[in-house]
Write a structure and sequence with these properties.
This protein is an all-alpha fold. It contains seven helices and no strands. Helix 1 packs parallel to helix 4 and helix 2 crosses helix 6. The longest helix is centred in the C-terminal third of the chain and has 43 residues. The protein is elongated and about 100 Å long.
Length: about 210
């Protein structure tokens, strides 16, 4: 359940923000921040999970809520103004650019090999099969085709790798620091409501 992971993940966010140079973060640090938001921003689901735990183990939910409240208050006490100047879109593009460059380089090699193979193949089409030139060119053409096939397979692999990385990390491109602040404020409110509801339930039980 997401609610059982929030405190640890928010603690990681807090530790990062408290110890790094906020206006010059790395891609990995940007991923940690943006993934936290992407994973936990559906707060309605968190409330639903809290209700499930409430029915099974009130004390466990109470501990989760107090831990979350503590980390939320710690986050909101941090000065994260330095984070506001970070261009997350550029961080994403610079990271993804490495994958795109590898793909483009291999694509150029593959394209050139195809041209060379096509030229050989076209030449063979106009040569008599029993000619010496045909016999010498034919194995070279086969070898060039095999070389192209290998490069083409590599190009396809790198393209898929590029697209997978784009999908995996696109959350960095979309991320804004204010999103995180708004989310943590919501989480703080949820944890306070849980604690309040449990306290009220206990008071009613002992009346």
């Amino acid at each position: 359940m997401k609610i059982q992971q929030i405190t640890q993940r928010l603690q990681e966010v807090n530790t990062l923000l408290a110890g790094c140079r906020q206006d010059c973060i790395t891609f990995e640090q940007a991923m940690l921040l943006s993934l936290f938001y992407r994973y936990f921003n559906e707060t309605n689901q968190i409330v639903t999970e809290a209700n499930v735990i409430f029915q099974k183990d009130v004390e466990q939910l109470n501990k989760i809520a107090f831990s979350l409240l503590s980390e939320a208050e710690r986050f909101l006490s941090l000065d994260i103004t330095g984070l506001q100047s970070v261009d997350f879109a550029t961080i994403f593009e610079e990271h993804l650019g490495k994958f795109e460059s590898r793909y483009e380089e291999t694509k150029e090699i593959s394209t050139e090999l195809w041209r060379e193979y096509s030229a050989m193949s076209n030449r063979l089409d106009f040569l008599p099969i029993d000619s010496d030139e045909y016999k010498s060119l034919d194995p070279l053409c086969d070898a060039k085709k095999a070389e192209y096939d290998t490069a083409h397979a590599q190009t396809d692999r790198l393209y898929k790798e590029w697209q997978r990385e784009r999908d995996r990390t696109f959350c960095v491109y979309c991320f804004k620091p204010m999103f995180l602040t708004v989310l943590v404020e919501r989480l703080k409110g949820i944890s306070e409501s849980i604690i309040s509801d449990i306290r009220r339930m206990k008071e009613e039980t002992y009346e």
